[in-house]
Amino acid sequence: MSEDDDQEQTWVVVKRRNEQDVFVEMQSDAAGCATGHCGAGAVGCQSNAFVGLFATAPLLRLKDVPITVNEGDRLLLSLPRKAVFQLAFLGYGLPLFALLLGLWLGQTLAGDLTALFLGISALLMTWLAVGKLGLVIEPKILECHLLSV
Question: CA angle, corner 65, sides to 64 and 68, nearest 5?
Fold first, then answer.
């Protein structure tokens, strides 16, 4: 298994920059349609209907970028696949487990209303706890297409 197999890669576009940080926006998978890289082939693009649902993507802040980039430049970012799965588990799996545990505990102790209250409380407390962890994973810049002059 090569190092590329253990990495999640995505293209981003530089939206703005300050002294220390670069703010980038992730590109949708449908952006590959124009370049022929979407892989749909003769089937056609299946994601165009969903691209318009999200007006703007949230900006990702990259700290201490080692190269000089300007607005409009494209960067290829890479994250370890293990980190992506860990973050997905913390963001989705752990709160889901807390919800189910709260539901089960509430149903065992008192009944439906208590189960609902304990389940939702456990879900919200877990989301808050995960949010307070402040997990930071710094992506590596693999490739850069400088579009600025």
Answer: 130
Of 136, 145, 130, the closest CA to residue 79 belongs to 136
Which three-class secondary structure state does DSSP give residue 107?
Answer: helix
Q: Rounded to two decimals, what is the model's pTM?
A: 0.57
What is the residue range of 124's domain? 3-145
Report the candidate in 8, 53, 48, 16 with the shortest Cα–Cα distance to residue 30: 48
Is residue 1 over pLDDT 60?
A: no
CB-count burial class (<10 Å; 0-12, 13-18, 19+) for 106:
buried
Which among 27, 16, 21, 33 is positioned nearest to 57, based on CA atoms?
A: 27
Residues in the chain: 149
- Residue whose entry in the numeric block shows the structure tokens 């802040």: 61
* 102-126 pLDDT tens trace: 999 999 999 899 999 999 999 999 9
Rounded to whole angstroms, the Cα distance separating 74 from 105 reads 49
What lies within 8 Å, CB to CB, of 104 at 6+ separation is 115
Label residue 112 exposed, middle or buried (CB < 10 Å: 0-12, 13-18, 19+).
exposed
